[in-house]
From TrEMBL:
Keyword entries, A-Z: Transferase
InterPro entries, per database record: Acetyltransferase_Butenolide, Acyl_CoA_acyltransferase, GNAT_dom
Annotated ranges, domain N-acetyltransferase: 12-143
Single GO molecular function: acyltransferase activity, transferring groups other than amino-acyl groups
Protein name, as recorded: GNAT family acetyltransferase
Transmembrane helix found in the keyword field: no
CDD domains with a match to the protein in the record: NAT_SF
Entry annotated with the keyword Transferase: yes
Length: 148
């Protein structure tokens, strides 16, 4: 796996998992991310362990995150994308997406997939579209997986 670290102005994007601030990621996902509210910390840890992760930083402070689940040959799922509130509107999500889409281990894939409830405009800038034929897709979704 190719580790990347890219610096731009006062910000950095890195795929080095040793830099990840697990508490920041967990807190955002469990308390702010509509797609996985109340996710247990152990689930976050396992998801990070089994994904290609991109951290966004200012200095040593983590301010953003995204992860890819992939076979690195045919398909990739993009998930858990966020920039913390105080740093939104600065172009960081676009830079994060550029970095992800240009990662050398994610080139030549047949399919990329993601789910979003509110960031369609961001992803469209990178060629993403609604599923052309939803009748081909199926899912098994437990929306209450993290509730007790």
């Amino acid at each position: 796996m190719t580790d990347l670290t890219i610096v731009k102005n006062d910000f950095c994007i890195s795929t080095d998992k040793t830099k990840l601030d697990i508490d920041t990621i967990y807190t955002f996902l469990a308390k702010e991310a509509y797609w996985c509210l109340n996710i247990p910390k152990d689930r976050v840890l396992v998801s990070i362990e089994n994904s290609l992760c991109f951290g966004v930083y200012t200095g040593s402070r983590q301010i953003g995150f995204a992860r890819i689940i992939s076979d690195f040959s045919t398909i990739a799922y993009l998930g858990d994308v966020f920039i913390v509130k105080d740093y939104r509107g600065m172009g960081l999500s676009k830079w994060l997406m550029e970095t992800i889409m240009n990662h050398p281990d994610l080139q030549g894939l047949r399919r990329w997939i993601l789910l979003t409830g509110d960031a369609h405009q961001l992803y469209r800038q990178f060629g993403w579209k609604e599923i052309a034929d939803p009748s081909l897709w199926m899912e098994l979704h437990n929306k209450n997986a993290y509730t007790k």
